[in-house]
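Example complex used in Figure S2.
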Amino acid sequence: MTEPLPIDRQEDERDDEYALDPDLVAAIMESVDAGDRVGVLSQIGDLHVADLADLTEQIDPEHRRRFIELVWADVDQEFLVEVEEGVRDEIVSYLAPEMLAEAVRDLETDDAVYLLEDLEESTQREVLAALEPADRAAVAKSLSYPEGTAGRLMQSDFVKAPPFWTVGQMIDFLRASDDLPEEFYDVIIVDPAAKPVGKVALGTLLGARRPVTLESLMADDFRTLHVEEPEEDVAYAFNQYHIVSAPVVDDSGRAVGVITIDDAMEVLEDAAEEDIKRLGGVGDEEISDRVWEISKRRFPWLAVNLVTAILASLVIALYEDAISELVALAVLMPIVASMGGNAGTQTLTVAVRALATRDLTSTNAMRVVARETLVGLANGIAFAVVMGIVAWIWFADPVLGAVIAVAMVVNLLVAGMAGILIPIGLDKLGADPALASGAFVTTVTDVVGFLAFLGLAAAVLL
Amino acid sequence: MTEPLPIDRQEDERDDEYALDPDLVAAIMESVDAGDRVGVLSQIGDLHVADLADLTEQIDPEHRRRFIELVWADVDQEFLVEVEEGVRDEIVSYLAPEMLAEAVRDLETDDAVYLLEDLEESTQREVLAALEPADRAAVAKSLSYPEGTAGRLMQSDFVKAPPFWTVGQMIDFLRASDDLPEEFYDVIIVDPAAKPVGKVALGTLLGARRPVTLESLMADDFRTLHVEEPEEDVAYAFNQYHIVSAPVVDDSGRAVGVITIDDAMEVLEDAAEEDIKRLGGVGDEEISDRVWEISKRRFPWLAVNLVTAILASLVIALYEDAISELVALAVLMPIVASMGGNAGTQTLTVAVRALATRDLTSTNAMRVVARETLVGLANGIAFAVVMGIVAWIWFADPVLGAVIAVAMVVNLLVAGMAGILIPIGLDKLGADPALASGAFVTTVTDVVGFLAFLGLAAAVLL
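Predicted assembly (924 residues):
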């Protein structure tokens, strides 16, 4: 520990404590340009593999390739596991399979599976062939489960023991083992058929005397995960029940691996990330993707939006005569649609998240629908008053003010109902509400907004 | 383990394995109606505290109160920690302070802090007074750090040892302790001034022989957190570096507590949740909040949207003459604005997340800005062609088609730039990009969309 820095300096430092220093990155790129291998290695000296991964993501593709070629043999190749998919694919494309195999050989089985699952089949086979037979079997077994399941996420190397063992026996066994897993937090207690019956936390084990049996130390709360359980459900369980590690069982109920909380944490983060991106109308793109990939990925979402926008325009076209008679309608109509769109988005955002976190269930669904409708009504009335007065003053026309006020109430009421019913409906149909709700809800609010405002105006004003 | 269920039945079960069974919830509410305390208790029998918390969230407020009154004395009151804030406040409001104090007495200090920090000061004082002196001091100390920092998140009870201790001494010490923390994963190694110098994972400790010193077993990768470090940074560090537990130090560098990964996981989930809600234009509301609270919370976001919508309308008003001459302009103009809004939202969603996950830094900012501009241009051209043809055919006017095509390119180009520059700018100014980017970006795309389309149309067509 060095002397504490003055407070304001400290705050500055703390601000981007975990961000890579841009000056360091610039210096590394200079050394890469100069082909200075020793310089680059000394600059990345004590970077954590996760930071090394961030570094490779942040430099541009040309520097990246030269950087990897310079340092590959000398760095902890585990960093490849931490690199995001697009960049990893790129790096893998210029690594010879035997170089990749060497990197994979040093990984725990869950990390090996994570790296291998995205590779082309031929590369995958070559890398698998280069592994130790025991590791190869474990990795191949994991890969035999569907992508995105507990079977892919688990570490096949774990510590197990029968319930009748004593603490002393257990400790002696652990001391005698020369290949304990890198990280483990529980001993899994298994019956003679290898079915998990409980677990003993290492802290509990350490606090107990040698003659005590493991059975008497087993945690009250014990859960197993099935190999084919979706990883999002696994992550939910870890977060909900504060699990640190849990055994994974196959169809026969035998323990075949263990999932630890750090893997669950990543899945949880990825799932939230996916929801955010889907709600924002983007797919699984990364900040390092290229122009062409990104344009292609965003195109379908924009295409859907174009169709809904044209639908809304067809509604406007119905009232061309009204608009040409009273052009103020054209000026005001986007306001009604926009407010409905925003109110609908608010409701659907809350609904999508509540569905994802299992807070919105059939128990409270009707209550929530009623509430969202009332919220729509309440804010509809509030903004009807505001906008009614604005329109009245702006166009010196009290009837026009009244028309926009009524349209506002109608659209915000409908927005509230659509914002909750559409995600619930999509969820019931087995579709991802984060993916499609937005397009449906804004279509409804655009169409209803234009229809209510222009229809009413045509009836009352002309 | 019971007999395995037939496969399709199993899948069904797995589908909502972690959701509360609505039939159970309904049955419990019936028992509550009947005032059948024994019945309710047997129904909630083996529910995990987290599920008990979900149950209290899901039932309606009237049943909730009667439910709590019936079962409070007989359940594990730790469930209160798991209940979301709004519902917790409600429950706390009808618990006598001494009942609350009793619940808090059984909690670990970090959970106690979490419960207490939201209470009114007078209740907080009463509850604190009822705690054991040692716990009271620890909880009060934690509460003295700002909300949302490592100091509030930490558990003040942790296992520490000097570096020269042997594994044997450590194990003997742990066996002799009668109040080990409920969960711990590392021993924190401290120097004589109580400054942490390393940590030994329990798995490593268990695998080593008695005469080995702790110093020789310390993990390579060791990080400390400062008491005033924001909890989002703490969560980021845990996720980035796969940390399971880390000591928290005060200004003097002394270890004052430990944060474990399960707490970090919750913070990470909450931070992503907050980003989602802010991007969706809602505050920190929960699915169980009441109509009035929700309406009030959503009002400001809608008010901001109203202002931006009116701004856009002012642009339209500039071209009233053009619209009354050619009403097709009114029909088509929302399409240009809507496409720009969507493209801008796509870009800003990616930008906001990349800023949150520190993937967008000054190293790659210029590259990302250039790329987003190009993506805007590429999709702008694609949709210009499509929409140009649609407008040409619809209104049998090739020049109108050309006008909307040019406006589309301009608006999608601007959307790409605004979508990336606005979040980066807000971040540089220290504002939360998730909070305000949306309003700014859609203002830009609305204004530019209407201006480009109507302005060009007025110049070319009339």
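Chain A touches chain B through 136 residues (CB under 8 Å). The radius of gyration of chain A is 29 Å.
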